[in-house]
Amino acid sequence: MPKVNYGHKAWFEDQYRGSAQDPWGLDWRPSQEMRYERKVRLLSKMTEGRSNLSVLDIGCATGIFTHKLEVALGERCRRIIGCDFSEQAIERARARYPEIEFEISSLEECSERYAGSIDVVSFLEVFYYIDDEKRREALRSLKNLLTDDGIVLISSMVAKPPYLTAAELRARVAEEFDILEVGEMHLKVLSTLEKTALKASKLMGVKDSRALKWLSRSISPPRAGKIEQISRRLFGTASVSNAFVVAKKPSG
User: Is residue 75 part of a domain?
Assistant: First the structure.
């Protein structure tokens, strides 16, 4: 059997084939819920006072963030599209949210198809899958999508390469964009607990995972927020799990 490289299309299809649910627990993990909610609030704030928005969620997976963004922007959103190069991801997204427009396409295909027409682009947990020597090209593809006053949100898990710290992510994004905001989330303790539960679920069988159900019910968003506060106080930068940057297309 040929080797399937990490982050390549075949690798993602393997991940989806191996899980009846989202392979990364995006549909139940309290840390992911908190991460999504914070980024939705951020984009809502950044687009306050604007209407008739066109929004593109690249690397949308099963569409959870796309849906949250659609709900948050409401009538201010003229069109929202979720895209992913994984056929299985898009199949699940369409089944989950039939009212939302989803398509199978890569970043490069999106950049060509929607050039200069998108007001808000989200690019969550995708950048680190791109080979380092191709990252600037990816940033240019993102920039090509945007209207003159368009913005992009890019996030990364914080860990050893290929992942990036907030400073590293900011520096890379600044190669092609003007930076508006940089942030971090201190959810490593909670994420570690979730990953332990995820491993336990695989031993018990994903469809009957009491560990996942218990964790999802027990840790509400306020509790997750409290865990983040305590983690930041006790462990400082060692508790950082995720970094994000909001940037705009440079004028001129």
Answer: yes
